[in-house]
Amino acid sequence: MPSLDDVTRPDGGRPPRILFGGDYNPEQWPEETWPEDVRLMKEAGVNSVTLGVFSWARIEPRPGAREFGWLDRLMDLMHENGIGVVLATPTSSPPPWMGRLHPETLPRDANGLTEWWGSRQHFSHSSPVYRRYAAALTEDLAARYGSHPALTMWHINNEYCTYDWGDEAARTFRTWLQRRYATLDALNTAWGAAFWSQGYASWDEILPPRHAHYMKNPTHVLDFKRYTSDMLLECYRAERDIVRRHTPHIPVTTNFMPFWTGQDAWAWAPEEDLVSVDIYPDPKDPHGGQYNAMIGDMTRSQAGGGPWMVMEQAAGPVNWRGVNHPKPYGLNRLWSLQSVAHGADGLCYFQWRQSRQGAEKFHSGMVGHAGQQGRVFREVKEIGHELSLLGAEVAGRRVTADVAVLHDWNSWWAGEQDGRLSALVDYTEIVRAWHRALWEAHTTTDFAHPAHDLSAYRLVVVPHLYLLDDTAIENLLGYVRAGGTLVCGFLTGVADEDDRVRPGGIDPRLRELLGIATLHEWWPLDADERADCGDFHGTHWSEELTPAPGAETVASYKGGELDGLPAVLRNGRAWYVSTLPEPTALRTLLTRIAHEAGVRPVLDGLPDGVEAVRRGELLFLLNHQREEATVRIPGRHRDLLTGVVVEGSLRLGRYGVAVLGEPS
Length: 664
Ligand code: GLA
What we know:
The protein is of the alpha/beta class. Helix content is 32%, strand content 20%. It contains 18 helices and 26 strands. The strands form five sheets. A nine-stranded parallel sheet has the order 5-4-3-2-1-9-8-7-6. The protein has a seven-stranded mixed sheet with strand order 11-10-12-13-20-19-18, with helices on both faces. Strands 22-23-26-24-25 form a five-stranded antiparallel sheet, covered by helices on one side. Strand 12 (459-462), helix 16 (470-481) and strand 13 form a beta-alpha-beta unit. Helix 12 (331-341) packs parallel to helix 13 and helix 15 (427-440) packs across helix 18. The two termini are 35 Å apart. Bound molecules: alpha-D-galactopyranose.
């Protein structure tokens, strides 16, 4: 199987490198701009551009037409200038003629409203007509450019994310359900359809969970989410198989949205030759660096621990938040090198040149409206230069972790539905809080699926897996039995794979493992409410539970209805935290548990706000603050970015980064 290594570390020939560049949409510009683009790309050290992401209407202006001339010229231009091309199948934004001639290709929302053309991603994953046109275009693209020397990688579609509640989807949803359940009896049982008279007597009665009078059946909604992820994956696979047939040696990817609810990335990632992601932390978020780290950890884990790629990031502001902030000087570099520290061997942007028209004209580009004189482009050039210094030493090296955070889309989907006890419990927020605690404790962290082999980890953390199937439960039990340390946050193991509440409110096997005798009630907390737990406060949630004999109450609730009951419970190597401790407390708790489990921080004595990550033998030090920081380091090292040999300690300036290798 080809991989990212084939692009960054090809056999013989070129030295290893990190891919650097971005989405290039030259069809938006007069052709006279192209030579200027290439000149600036070379100045910036760009070695990779992604072409064609939104080019469908340009290539196929009428059904069946093919206008490849402009793309031929671009592919040649890139090759002549030593820039590799990540070629996209432009199937995420069909041309207007498709919707006009084939309205059934347009998706509908839960209220039956059509998503018309005029924006993007307006395709029904279930439409055979859409799929036929997409396949034909992919076929021709692969035939035409498969042997072009500029081609380095295929980029299928773009950020697959379209839901469809329309009639095309109703048809494929039924087929999907028939494959899952075989009989209506099985479906009715799984969905608990006896409730509210929902029993289905015929497959034709089943619809996507459309607008309804009141709360919808949660298992119906859960299955719809599973189905949507699977249908989009089918679309991806169809195009992937076409390009693979033409070019079995060229790696294939599709760019994930990070931590995006619509796509079970654990199921998708093995279908790719390399995993890529689009990362857009908010420059104003004081914890943006931690978010960037978390997405890096998650994507690396989806890539099986191997190198991965930032397919898109922003050189400055995005334009889809309420208020869109630029990146202050140094932040683009810091977060870029941080992604490299977390295992990225490709660092690309949306987009090369900032658009002057269209919906994203206020979204930054590598070359902004200020052009080559702009501060943003100057920084881009610096980053390109530094990546060229790092490439040979860094590419292909792996990051290893002793800790895994468990995350599963099924649990997220099931847990976020209507009808639960607290709408304030937000899955991503909880996962982020636990990852942040580990990150601030200078611990390197992987992500894993609850059914993955966990034996390589000293510590496994479950922030909030409301739904756990039997395989996952047995896996966790086996992990602790084999000597692992497990920490579970509140609302873990409540439901089975059909979203049926387990007897007793937590799976009985898990209850025994965690040392819980009885879970009496859940006590969610209001937004401004804090649960006094003695040394710290809990937020979001609290629980009325009785510990089993032998379990140790490490922290208990003080006052109120839960007075004296465990907030943190320990049963040997299994821990249960029935609230969300405030950030410092969660960090302290996890530091203690990690220490007992034999997990060490990357470096001792690191100041707050400085992150350390080891990638192979290299040590990345990243200062996430505007203030200078001094870091004590063991032994003598050479900073690969400056060439300077450092010993004993090191000063990092505002947003400063050092990459330490062997002295010579
Ligand atoms: C996504 C898309 C890009 C662009 C950016 C803007 O990542 O893939 O086409 O719209 O968002 O941030």
